[in-house]
Amino acid sequence: MGKTALALHAAHLVADRYPGGAVLLPMSGPDGAPRPAADAAAALRALLRCRDGGAPCLVILDDVVHPDQVRDLLDATGPGAVIVTSRLGLAALVATHGPAVVQLGALSPRESDALLTAVLGRERVAAEAAAARTLAELCGHVPLALRIVAARLLTRPRTRLADYAEWLRRDLPARLALPDDPRMSVPLALDGALRRLPAPLADAHLRLARLHGRITAPATAGALAIPETEAEELLERLLDHGLLEDDQPGTLRMNELFRAHALRRTARTGDEVPRAVTATARRALPSGAT
């Protein structure tokens, strides 16, 4: 959803307030493994020693996996400020430190239109307004997907938006990727997100993609063959990981792009999703760490 990009953008906007500059400290590896707190603290101390005479500095702790990774670091930054990015809600950190919270999610239809217009130009988007809306819907209004679509269309100025939408629809979300940069790939990004989850949660996500429309605890309990109370806790964890979104009280929903990816994953590995979730969900649910 662009957490790191937003943090870096914010750092540039407030650069004049922090004469000591800004540092970005990765808090997890490419595989999602959390960086040990002691290692992160040593790296941060080394970075801060290089700053200008102890002047206020802006520290970005990027892709935090668990609150315990950063609690001690928050006291080590001196007179500066800290931006923490995470795929998780980090509610425990919010409770103890009370920071300002910015929750990123899919864009609104208006924001999606503004993004496409900014890249492709007002004239091209206005000429095929309905097709532009269809493209945004196929992308689930996810910023990464929209940027990939916009980049492809920018390099194909003669391609009609409607034709491109139809081509995209035939193999979604596999075609939401740029061949010259593996980082610009919706399937790879979502595969990575699932690899970070405990296996029962990942399996539950794949199963819940088969539910149409709103997702409730009773429907989840039936789909996964678990008690409703455990279904509620499982849904809370998927919500915390950003794989579900709030809809109405008692109901959640899955982004249509995430759903398309999950259904494609299921089809690729066979008709049946592994039933590990029904056997091991009880063991996986109590732990808040990933």
TrEMBL record:
Name listed for the protein in its UniProt record: NB-ARC domain-containing protein
Organism whose genome encodes this protein: Streptomyces laurentii
